[in-house]
Amino acid sequence: MTSWIIRAVWATGATVCAIAMYLLPGRETIPFHLIWIGISLVYGFTVWRPVEMVVMVGVTAAVTGAIMVHHASNGWIDWPELAEVPLSVALTAVIAAYLRRRHMALAELAAIAENDRRRSESRQVMVRQVSHELRTPITIARGYTELVRNRIDDETVAEDTAIVLEELDKLAQITQRLVTLIQLDAEYARQPVHLDAELTRVVRRWTPAADRRWSVTCDGGEVLANRDRLEAMLDCLLDNAVRFTEPGDAIRITGTVDETTWTIEIADTGVGLTARDAEALTAAMPTSRQELSGTGLGLVMVRTVVGAWGGSLHFRGRPGAGTIVTLRFPIMRSSADEEIVAEALKNDSSVIDLVAGSGRP
């Protein structure tokens, strides 16, 4: 509707200008150029088919050309001034070609945006289906397994059901990680959080789950993060730390905040890593102990979050002496500060850029 209104306004204005050209011989320059400028503007704000544009330009050239010929034949203007008509046609054709490319680019961008919206909706539907279709049977199977274990007083049955429960717990964990991984690129807000409080809260959740010597040290400070993403990322790293340690081993979480970065370090006294494996994990490459890494979804999730926050992920350790995982993120304040921090991190050779890849062995 708006397109037709714009065209009607231009047609009315062009008619008025054409009448002015005819009634003002020798002074037709301004209304003449207003007509041609108007047709370019209308084509820029509306979408015309090529045939429509050719017809409109032809009609405009015929009307303005006829008026100019009439004036020249009566001696009111010089004949060379008629060259303005084909020159205006050529200029309008060039502008129309550029505007057509612009219209096509905008249409393509609109189609891409619509496809992204549909994919996002489909992804959300899939997340809900995965969550329901996988978690429900796992929960039911776990309930019946516990019922069998409680009803039958047999040592063999107890051992077998314990294995079944352990495997169901692993399956539930994999399901949760898959759902979280699917949701990682969804929109979420980062807000100021107290790093010391968040680290303490996460470790408090893990303390009853694993017989380890847990400790948390943090120099305080407020950072910009999303609590759910931060918790999911730490859970994956702590799960790895528990997996590669034994009861009685130590797991230490350290948080630091300075003027440009905030860092989380998770150190354990478990089986450790070779220098080659540590380097491969930092570079997100397969390691020689890939068979021990489970699904590898945990570190994929960690790397996705770290990359989204402009941070880095680094591994180091020695066989039998434990592993240290370091997460480093830039401090974000304002848009101007973000640019300064990003440039500082780019020039800091100690920061190892994140490369997407699979998980720790």
UniProtKB/TrEMBL annotation:
Pfam families: HATPase_c, HisKA. It comes from the Bacteria. One of its GO terms (molecular function) is ATP binding. Its EC number is 2.7.13.3. InterPro entries: 2C_sensor_his_kinase, HATPase_C_sf, HATPase_dom, His_kinase_dom, HisK_dim/P_dom, HisK_dim/P_sf. It catalyses: ATP + protein L-histidine = ADP + protein N-phospho-L-histidine. The chain crosses the membrane at residues 5-24, 30-48, 55-73, 79-99. One of its GO terms (cellular component) is plasma membrane. Keywords: ATP-binding, Cell membrane, Kinase, Membrane, Nucleotide-binding, Transferase, Transmembrane, Transmembrane helix. PROSITE patterns: HIS_KIN. It is a multi-pass membrane protein. Residues 129-333 form the Histidine kinase domain. SMART domains: HATPase_c, HisKA. It is found in: Cell membrane. CDD domains: HisKA. PANTHER family: SENSOR PROTEIN CREC, SENSOR PROTEIN RSTB. This is histidine kinase. It comes from Allocatelliglobosispora scoriae.
